[in-house]
Design goal:
Oligomer: single chain
Strand content: 35-45%
Distance between the termini: 23 Å
Radius of gyration: 23 Å
Shape: globular
Structural class: mainly beta
Length: 488
């Protein structure tokens, strides 16, 4: 892996570095750029100044294409790799000191690796304290910052989203305390902080997620035909319960619903088929045997913007959705808004914008994430860029891209790609550029004016996290990586 000869087209950018496998961006520090493997459970740290590899976890796909006897693996054997535990390709989080992941742990433990040289600092396995929640069933949850960076809270969240063996504890009729469902880990030591959250033995827990404000961790679970949530207060350590919904149509629970925090004690429950229910907790219960006081509203397919709440590269929370409906006459639109970080409530910068018809012919739709677990391709432009009250979003237009102001809905600028709508633009903080991948080229635009600043040949999609941008070439299984010049 060596830096390429391609010059940086703007003063703020470094050169492209060539990586010999497909990787996704995780983030950067003053000295390192962190990447995670797509085809292999690898983690790679690059020197931010030179682009050279500093250390890595795991082997590249080429290194694992032979069996232990040195013979090439037959095509029929490739399917075996998909039988590996989910944690092997799990999340990779980081702060300035460590990289945190279950990848290459060997048993599903969460391991902290030193940011400088990659040595193991500590290893934590909640599976050692409960035989009904074995180590390989645990998953690292998204961070409290809703990004791949842990922030300053020094806490990690682990979930155990599997039903317990009914022979454990008190059997199928077990009540709380039952099996472990969520544990909080100290990033400095790997120790479990406070009491882990438990659910009844026959409950089916989901992935625990931080709420919008970062003050709580919500652990959803199904129990006897109902959808419930446990809210864990990270300050006091107290837990509260609420039964969010008891659907009359049990077919809705043929697959586990998705429960999402929307701020203001509201949750969105998305059932199989896409229909949604909004549940508002009016009064939480301090007792796991009680349901709390909850009101519900059937939303059908009208998903609120708050369902897809994100944090931009500069830390501002906002939401952005592309609406849909099974009605053939429905006209989709982009809906967006900004949030007050401490409360999770909107600030009134509501935006409704046109969606080019050809956008639906692509896989990426628009320049932000597709689910709550990833943060690639931030579309948000901070208000400070224009010295306005609200920010703006870079969205696809009929001819390329347009920057639309939140709160005003006016177009700040438009850019003609020459190829029609452009999707998946990534707004890079610090240099205030939007980077977009097109057919055979990648382009950088000034987010203030829409002026094209540079372009470079490319053969794959562009993904970005913060100031790290990658071009993934799926044909050659290689990646180009680029970031801004060293901060230190």
């Amino acid at each position: 892996m060596t830096p390429s000869e391609t010059p940086g087209p703007t003063a703020a950018w470094g050169e492209w570095a060539d990586v010999d496998e497909l990787v996704a961006p995780v983030g950067s520090t003053e000295d390192r750029v962190i990447l995670s493997g797509l085809d292999a459970p690898t983690v790679i740290a690059l020197d931010r100044t030179t682009g050279e590899e500093s250390w890595r976890l795991g082997e590249s796909p080429e290194s694992t294409s032979e069996d232990p006897d040195g013979e090439a693996i037959d095509e029929d054997d490739w399917g075996d790799s998909w039988d590996s535990p989910g944690w092997e390709h799990g999340l990779v989080l980081h702060d300035d000191r460590h990289v945190y992941t279950q990848r290459e742990s060997g048993d599903g433990s969460l391991v902290a690796y030193d940011m400088d040289d990659g040595h193991e600092v500590w290893r934590a396995s909640p599976g050692t304290i409960d035989p009904c929640a074995p180590a390989d069933g645990w998953r690292l949850s998204p961070s409290r910052t809703q990004s791949y960076e842990t922030g300053e809270q020094d806490l990690l969240i682990m979930s155990h989203p599997d039903m317990a063996d009914l022979s454990c504890h008190d059997g199928p009729s077990a009540t709380h305390p039952g099996k472990l469902a969520m544990a909080v880990i100290d990033t400095a030591t790997g120790d479990i902080v406070g009491e882990p959250v438990k659910v009844a033995g026959n409950a089916i827990p989901g992935i625990a997620m931080p709420d919008i404000t970062g003050q709580f961790i919500d652990t959803p679970y199904e129990l006897q035909g109902s959808v419930n949530v446990i809210r864990h207060d990270l300050t006091s350590g107290e837990a509260r319960w609420a039964m969010l919904d008891y659907p009359q149509d049990f077919s809705r629970l043929e697959s586990s619903p998705v429960v999402s925090d929307m701020g203001g004690e509201r949750f969105l429950i998305t059932y199989q088929g896409g229909e949604s229910v909004q549940a508002t907790v009016d009064d939480w219960s301090p007792d796991h045997m009680e349901t709390g006081d909850v009101s519900t509203d059937e939303l059908g397919y009208e998903v609120p913007c708050e369902y897809r709440t994100l944090r931009s590269s500069d830390g501002t929370p906002y939401c952005l959705i592309l609406t849909s409906s099974p009605n053939p006459g429905y006209t989709p639109k982009f809906i967006a808004d900004e949030f007050e970080a401490s409360t999770g409530t909107t600030t009134g910068g509501q935006l409704e914008s046109h969606v080019p018809a050809s956008v639906f012919e692509t896989d990426e739709y628009y320049g932000v994430v597709h689910d709550r677990d990833t943060v690639e391709n931030d579309a948000y432009i901070p208000p400070a860029t224009w010295d306005t009250e609200y920010g703006a979003l870079v969205l696809p237009s009929d001819t390329g891209l347009t920057a639309v102001g939140l709160g005003t809905e006016d177009s700040r600028w438009s850019w003609d790609s020459g190829e029609g709508p452009a999707v998946g633009a990534h707004v890079v903080p610090g240099v205030d550029e939007a980077v977009i991948g097109l057919d055979r080229r990648t382009v950088g635009l000034d987010v203030r004016t829409g002026e094209q600043l540079w372009e470079t040949p490319s053969d794959g999609p562009v993904f970005g996290v913060g100031d790290v941008v990658v071009i993934a070439d799926y044909m050659s299984s290689t990646t180009q990586v680029r970031t801004t010049l060293p901060l230190g």
